[in-house]
Amino acid sequence: MIIKTPTHYFLVCGASEGFTPLNAFDAALLRAGIGDTNLVKMSSIVPPHCQLIAPVPLPGGSLVPTAYASITSDIPGEIIASAVAVALPEKPDYPGLIMEYSARGPKAEIEETVRQMAIEGMKLRGRVIKELNSVAVEHRVKKVGVALAAVVLWEKEEVEQD
Amino acid sequence: MIIKTPTHYFLVCGASEGFTPLNAFDAALLRAGIGDTNLVKMSSIVPPHCQLIAPVPLPGGSLVPTAYASITSDIPGEIIASAVAVALPEKPDYPGLIMEYSARGPKAEIEETVRQMAIEGMKLRGRVIKELNSVAVEHRVKKVGVALAAVVLWEKEEVEQD
Amino acid sequence: MIIKTPTHYFLVCGASEGFTPLNAFDAALLRAGIGDTNLVKMSSIVPPHCQLIAPVPLPGGSLVPTAYASITSDIPGEIIASAVAVALPEKPDYPGLIMEYSARGPKAEIEETVRQMAIEGMKLRGRVIKELNSVAVEHRVKKVGVALAAVVLWEKEEVEQD
Q1: Which residues on chain A are in Cβ contact (under 8 Å) with C116?
Q2: How many A/C residue pairs have CB atoms within 8 Å?
Q3: Which of A86, A110, B139, C65 satisfies CB 3.0 to 4.6 Å to B15 for a cystine?
């Protein structure tokens, strides 16, 4: 294994305005509770037996494997939203599936889409869904805004220590 | 070393339709034999002495350093293709070079381009090529399609255990 | 911790023409002194107590956590530039902030923007800046050009060994 396989995961979301698109992204991460870390973007599986936990504080500057959806807009008044969904299989020896989606539009619509995406992905694998979790956030743009939703993969030791 | 340096690598490709672009990407990964993992995208070097192997099953949900090209299209009838090439130097103490390319067009054309890209990259380094491998895949879009080609970096222990 | 937290960092930049956009990117990395490695892109924090060093040679093919800005252009004559800034807090137990920015325009302008972005990000955190470092590079496009600026996170052992 080149990189350790995570044992725990949690879902977060946040949105913000910012001085520039990257500042708005940075601020959205802070609001989501995962700012001040180094997100390493990955595609998008929950390892078998990986456990859902409530969000925990992450050590400052740590490298954090994360699946996320993010959308930026500089159109004043526009509604943007991001959502992530996690579908877990009935058989715990199989992996779960993470889906990410962001678009213009209200939170309810974006979240419904991402849940359907996870359902379709599990159908493709022939796996019965035991549990389907999702979070979503929407944002009305003032000048430059970002909406972000993420699934953070982490590990037990860290969770216990913090 | 923050992350271990891989010792083995393999080339794969796959293409698929999907419910959304991300579902098509997910399905293309499954067809390529690297679905159900967490791809960590990286730029694009084969470490010295890293060995080419046939594709191996990857543990579900593992974090997998991968260089890949991916293209999405929702234009019915369009042909899209992705390819990766790996150029290895005569002197085994030097790194090899991975190139990725995807575009509209037939597989043969895209694969020829990516091979030329690898040749140019080795020329820039002043390294004589000992071996040049590539894979490519094309896809005719129905509604939403993805074509993906990847070089997966992995390590010996995993290969032996699986 | 899924991935080790880096202990040292350095700033680099480079620009180049290339046979294709990816070849130009590859050549820009070589000019920046971080070619022949596998950059793993991450968002964008300096861990507490992480120390600034002069650029060091990285082992060929190693996986290197990096925050970077990159811009590609194929418009002959266009000036493109990339910059990164690192803002460190007065209190060393807090993380520092990396910002990346690239755009059409001269180096001085892009670097000024990225420094302002770092200042805004620290203001948002309520942290007083002790030190603000940045690098930037510009490039006049001939056929296909890339300008790249990066903050590489690394660790002490490697620095001492090399």
Answers
A1: 19
A2: 92
A3: B139
Query: Nearest residue on chain C to A4, judged by CA atoms?
Result: C2
- For an interface test with B, the pick among C1, C30, C39, C63 (most B C-beta atoms closer than 10 Å) comes out as C63
Give the pLDDT mean for C35-43. 97
Cβ distance C87 to C121 under 8 Å?
yes
CB contact under 8 A, A50 and B27: no
Please compute the mean of the pLDDT values over residues B112-134 and round it to a whole number: 98
φ, ψ of residue A112 in degrees (nearest 5): -60, -40
**CB distance A124–B26 less than 8 Å?**
yes
Chain B's closest residue to C9, CA to CA, is B2
Rounded-to-integer distance, Cα C135 and Cα C106, Å: 13
Q: Do the bridges between strand A145-154 and strand A63-73 make them parallel or antiparallel, or are there none, so unpaired? A: antiparallel
Q: Which of C38, C90, C120, C131 is catalytic?
A: C38
Tell me the whole-structure pTM to 2 decimals: 0.96
Rounded mean pLDDT, C134-156? 97
Distance CA A108, CA A6 (A): 30
- Provide φ and ψ at C25, rounded to 5°: -60, -45
Q: Which two tokens stand for residue A160?
A: 């216990």
Q: For residue B14, how many C-alpha atoms fall within 13 Å in the half-sphere facing its CB? A: 18
CA angle B29, B34, B35 (to 5 degrees): 55
Residue where the block lists tokens 């998008």: A44
| Other CB atoms within 10 A of residue A60 CB | 20
Distance CA A138, CA C78 (A): 37
Tokens, residue B124 = 């820039």
User: CB-CB: which of C4, C46, C120 is closest to A23?
Assistant: C120
Residue C44 catalytic?
yes
**Phi and psi dihedrals of B153, rounded to 5?**
-100, 130
B96 chain-C contacts, CB cut-off 8 A:
61
Q: What rounded mean pLDDT belongs to chain B?
A: 96
Express each pLDDT in A28-46 by its tens digit.
999 999 999 999 999 999 9
For A73-109, the pLDDT digits (tens) are: 999 999 999 999 999 999 999 999 999 999 999 999 9
Which of B65, A67, A108 minimizes the C-alpha distance to C61? B65
**Shortest Cα distance, chain A CAs vs residue B63, angstroms:** 6
Q: Is residue B43 annotated as a catalytic residue, yes or no?
A: yes
Using CA coordinates, name the residue in chain C closest to B93.
C60
B62: confidence class by pLDDT, cuts 50, 70, 90: very high
Active-site residue flag, B38: yes
Tell me what pLDDT residue C156 has. 72
